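Need a sequence for this fold. Nothing fancy.
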């Protein structure tokens, strides 16, 4: 283990620039959407969601009731693929009903599509020009002004709500492009104006979907503690959020459906996101880079990839550097352990098992062992690797070893 300076030292200078959404939390919070739109001066909302959410009365009834006469229409066509073509269909609907804001209901896919709709609505460039630029650059330029605002109503635990980025893909059969492409859009103007956290809506999500999404959000909290870009502010929110998530997810894994469980995981996912997506960078790091490498060209679901790889990534991290293991152990409720690094790995593994998620790469639709060197190259090139802790210098062989240990 190498002793290196770590974020959070009381003598370490930091700068924290963050302009988050308004946070609205509470059971039945969705029924207050009209008041939130009124506070921001919005009158005609287009709800953006997936087909399943759009057909789920337990979700849509409180959303419809909450919006009241401010509900102008529903676009229930988002998919996990987050297609540019879907965003263009949503844009057509947005303009058809003369909306002035977007209400994204569901998981990260619906929020990302809503963000792309907002970007497209604010530009006069034709679809072919945008499509060609996206193929060439992997992104879509965000105009300086005119973006319709977004209010997010999450129903999963993926933790995409307090973010200034959006992922998007394109294919010739669904989008104005001449070849498949994928990428992302990032800009402070993509931060939602408000996020409505309603534990009753979280509780409507099928348990298997909620469990899979949980690791995405849970790992955001883990990484925020050890990332090179951590601050005392994000230490506080991530630590408290991880504690709530750990307690709630372990209970959820036993089948406990008491309201406190959903209240705990909803507040936890809200807190671990606070301050992690900022103008000057993010706290996403090693685990998310590994997750990108495992999902970029494979069918493995992102939450499953995170579940499999997180304990092994942490073991590697703690072998090389301190990784702020003591703070992580305290946050996860195992601060009294004699070996805090091992206790953190065991606690994360316990959460994975409680959620019924896969624990081996060989059990998911990911890469075979012969592909590990290629995956390792992609991981090392991932932008999130710039946020790994000081003193950690992974090689291709190191990443392959992590993948082998997860196999």
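Here you go.
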């Amino acid at each position: 283990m190498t002793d290196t300076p770590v974020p959070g030292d009381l003598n370490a200078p930091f700068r924290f620039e963050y302009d988050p959404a308004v946070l609205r939390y509470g059971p039945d919070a969705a029924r207050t959407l009209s008041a939130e739109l009124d506070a921001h001066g919005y009158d005609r909302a287009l709800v953006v969601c997936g087909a399943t959410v759009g057909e789920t009365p337990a979700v849509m009834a409180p959303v419809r009731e909450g919006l009241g006469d401010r509900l102008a229409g529903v676009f229930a066509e988002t998919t996990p693929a987050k297609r540019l073509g879907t965003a263009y269909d949503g844009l057509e609907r947005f303009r058809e009903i003369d909306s002035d804001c977007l209400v994204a209901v569901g998981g990260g896919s619906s929020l990302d599509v809503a963000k792309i709709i907002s970007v497209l609505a604010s530009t006069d460039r034709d679809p072919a020009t945008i499509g060609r630029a996206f193929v060439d650059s992997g992104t879509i330029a965000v105009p300086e002004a005119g973006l319709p605002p977004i209010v997010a109503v999450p129903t999963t635990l993926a933790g995409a709500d307090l973010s200034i980025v959006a992922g998007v893909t394109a294919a010739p059969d669904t989008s104005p492009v001449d070849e498949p492409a994928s990428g992302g859009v990032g800009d402070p103007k993509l931060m939602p104006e408000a996020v409505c956290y309603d534990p009753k809506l979280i509780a409507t999500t099928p348990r298997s979907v909620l469990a899979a999404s949980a690791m995405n959000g849970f790992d955001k909290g883990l990484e925020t503690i050890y990332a090179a870009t951590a601050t005392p502010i994000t230490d506080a929110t991530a630590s408290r959020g991880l504690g709530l998530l750990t307690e709630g997810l372990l209970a959820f894994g036993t089948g406990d459906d008491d309201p406190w469980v959903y209240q705990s995981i909803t507040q936890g996912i809200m807190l671990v996101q606070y301050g992690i997506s900022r103008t000057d960078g993010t706290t996403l790091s090693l685990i998310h880079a590994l997750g990108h490498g495992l999902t970029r060209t494979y069918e493995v679901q992102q939450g499953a990839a995170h579940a499999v790889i997180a304990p092994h990534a942490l073991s590697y991290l703690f072998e090389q550097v301190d990784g702020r293991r003591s703070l992580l152990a305290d946050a996860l409720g195992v601060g009294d352990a004699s070996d805090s690094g091992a206790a953190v790995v065991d606690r994360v593994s316990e959460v994975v098992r409680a959620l019924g998620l896969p624990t081996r790469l060989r059990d998911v639709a990911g890469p075979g062992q012969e592909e590990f060197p290629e995956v390792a190259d992609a991981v090392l090139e991932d932008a999130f690797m710039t946020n790994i802790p000081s003193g950690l210098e992974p090689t291709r062989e190191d990443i392959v070893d992590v993948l082998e240990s997860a196999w």
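For context: The mean pLDDT is 94.
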